Amino acid sequence: MRTGMSSAPATHRPSHRIWGKSAPVLLAAVIALIYAGGHLTWYLGTPLGRVPVLDEHENLTLANAIFNGDLPAEPFYRAPGYPLVLAGLRALGVSASALFPAALALGVLLHALDAALTARIAGRLFGRRAAFFAGLLTALNPVLVHFSTQALDAVPSLALFLLGLDRLIGTPGTKPHAADWIGASLYWGAATLARPNFLLVWLLLPVLAAFRSPGADRARNTAAALTGSLLFAALGCWQWSVSGTPGFLPWQGAYNLWAANQPGSHGRYYVQTTTLPAALARRNPARVESVVRYRQATGRTDADIPAMNAYWRHRFIGEITGQPLAWLRLMARKAYALGNDWEQYNNKTYAFHHDRSPWLWWNPLSWGALFALGAAGAFRLVATDRRAALTLALIGTIYAASVLLFYVSDRFRLPLAAINTVLSGGALIAPAFWRTWPERHRWLPPAGVLLVSVFTFSRFDDVRSQVTFVQDHALLARAADTIGDDHTAWSEARAALAMQPQHPDALRIAIAAYFNELLNGTAEPVDEAAWLEISRTFLTLTAVGGDFPDLRAVAALALWRAGEHSAAIVGWRGEPANANARAALDLCGDARISTEAFAEFDDDAWRQPLVQIAAARRGVAPPPGLANTAFVHPEELGSRLFFPDQHE
């Protein structure tokens, strides 16, 4: 007998074998970090990477309200799960100004987690090589990278979904235990609090637990699968304490359910149907429209949220029961769009931004490719593990149904893309697996993949419309305007106007951007004619009942510079209460502002360039707090703005 040595236990595995089993998972995470991190470094230098917009802005606003404890006394309009995570970042010391880039960095980390989880799940279903392919496909998926660098709930909720799916899949040949059902229920419950589309999937869990558990464990596992309801109860109590109204689902859902299924809707993305005043349009248009249309339809002047939601649900049910065939046709259109390769608009059009990113434009990986590969992988899984295949099919079908009820916008189908990616790993390691099928059934896998490929890459029903690009141009122009990038704001606003000549945001941004370039001396003279036409359009549209008097005063300057002095003066005289218009009249010599009149201007008026220039000509100093905003050579600048011919 030799002392100091013992036989290794039967369960011991050498470290290199452990590394070999985990290598695809770790490799997927590393590649995802590199790829998404590279895209993020570029994106942070763009206007949209520096300014949160639309849903991003709402998420950050809600997160800061949660952290500061000043939530409005009303039910949650949007799901608070993701903003709660962002509020957690604030609690960890992230400042309000740093929250947006921190949220984008968190998205990159979660993308790496998603890649690792898909690799892990595919490895359990198909083996180590499948884990490598599935992880790589997730890490390099440009759509996922695109969403990982946005302050949205898409990637965080996907991570929670995959964590729950990982608990369900488990080791091949084994059934989930109570702890697995608890974990899956908590993960999918948390995903529902971030993205309510997961609610139907969560409700599937107790059904799966009942059917997949042996008799002795059925009751225990079914109860365990309901554990996530504790999260719903906690959120319901939280909302009750904030607003006096219990509940865990956001109140935007009822109107969106109607809007996505109303007559005339295509259901691919939200389309505003009501013309809103500019002051309201700058807020969430769907939220404002739901209240406006409710008041118009009912004649009520209040906006009781439970009553309003009941009204929209009633309209939805009435549409289905009253026009079932029309609704089924709409569902068929939405199902086609859901399965199509084109990424439908949601705040942004993916194709528009894909082509502008140096990290994404070259990448051909798409939903359609994953859908076709996933179909092949599904046929393979049916042959090797029918129970797992049925589980994935049920989960995918239930989730797809929840998406079809609302909009089939691209970020809502990311969980389906993840399932396809897992299955794709199984297809790539054995592309000729179908030859092992019985001869009479051997035609099914290739026929199925061919059918899916034709379906996903077809172009019927205007499914690949680029009409939403106008919103992307306008969104980019708005972000550029916010950070003071006048050149980009001008060019993107003009691109939007080329598609929609009367786009209200684009008109306003274009007028302001070129005026700012005139102030900075960076304006291109060749663009002056375009600025004049844009200003004419804007003045025509806002002639009756329009707002933005400061911009109307600036637009009239375009007429003055073009030699249309009478028209410009008429425009300025039509705004007697506006400081910019009064300053313009003074600078062109049509009227004179007394020294005492400047004292009447508030701080917002003093921030207007024309007011500052006119004040400098009169020898009036700006208020002390605004002295650092004054122009260095106001006399020369005023002369250059109003008498350009003298400076050519």
Description:
There is one protein chain. With 648 residues, the chain is mainly α. It folds into 2 domains: 18-237 and 342-461, no CATH class; 469-647, Alpha Horseshoe (Serine Threonine Protein Phosphatase 5, Tetratricopeptide repeat). It has 33 helices and no strands. The chain has helices at residues 15-43, 47-50, 55-68, 81-91, 99-126, 128-139, 142-148, 154-169, 178-194, 199-212, 215-224, 229-243, 252-259, 278-281, 285-298, 305-322, 324-339, 350-354, 367-384, 386-405, 414-429, 444-457, 469-483, 486-499, 504-520, 528-541, 549-561, 565-573, 579-587, 595-598, 603-606, 609-617, 634-642. Helix 27 (549-561) packs parallel to helix 29 (579-587).
Summarize the model shown.
The chain is mainly alpha-helical. It has helices at residues 15-43, 47-50, 55-68, 81-91, 99-126, 128-139, 142-148, 154-169, 178-194, 199-212, 215-224, 229-243, 252-259, 278-281, 285-298, 305-322, 324-339, 350-354, 367-384, 386-405, 414-429, 444-457, 469-483, 486-499, 504-520, 528-541, 549-561, 565-573, 579-587, 595-598, 603-606, 609-617, 634-642.
Write the layout of secondary structure elements.
Blueprint: H1 15-43, H2 47-50, H3 55-68, H4 81-91, H5 99-126, H6 128-139, H7 142-148, H8 154-169, H9 178-194, H10 199-212, H11 215-224, H12 229-243, H13 252-259, H14 278-281, H15 285-298, H16 305-322, H17 324-339, H18 350-354, H19 367-384, H20 386-405, H21 414-429, H22 444-457, H23 469-483, H24 486-499, H25 504-520, H26 528-541, H27 549-561, H28 565-573, H29 579-587, H30 595-598, H31 603-606, H32 609-617, H33 634-642
